[in-house]
Amino acid sequence: MTIEDYEPVLELMRGTPGVAVRAADSPEAIGRYLARNPGLSFVAEENGRLIGCVFGGHDGRRGSLHHLAVAADCRRAGVGRALVARALDALESIDIHKTHIDVFADNSGAIAFWKEVGWQERDDIRRFSFNRSADPNV
Fold it and tell me: Could you tell me if 65 and 99 are in contact, meaning their C-beta atoms sit under 8 angstroms apart?
């Protein structure tokens, strides 16, 4: 994925139930993310059309995936699995062996997908967030 993919990636994310697009997904923020995590985010294309994306990154110890999305008419064809595998391979190539993803608690489709592809749901931790912005959508 490159910043040139920004518009079709955002269009795909906006059309994917359970994927939240926020102010933090601005072109500038995504550009910083891609620059900070080179070669870890991927898109899938079919006949010139962007049909899937995943953002990959790390903190030096653990990997993280964000915004896995696949076009509705291309689901159940292995696109999501291939994107995840590609991101995990890229993370492993830089010695990042454990990766996390956050999923909204009410996103049953995503929860089923991650379980199906072998990810373990955690019930021993809770995610907390702190927002220093007046914008609740950052």
Answer: yes
Domain ranges of the chain: 3-116
Burial 22-41 (b: 16+ CB within 10 A, else e): eeebeeeebeebbeebeebb
- Whether this prediction's pTM lies above 0.90 is answered by yes
Helices (H), the chain: 6-14, 27-36, 79-92, 108-116
Which amino acid belongs to residue 120? Q
CATH of domain 3-116: 3.40.630.30
What digits encode the pLDDT tens for the residues 52-63? 999 999 999 999
CB 55 within 8 A of CB 65: yes
Whole-angstrom CA distances from 114 to 35, 55, 111 are 27, 15, 5
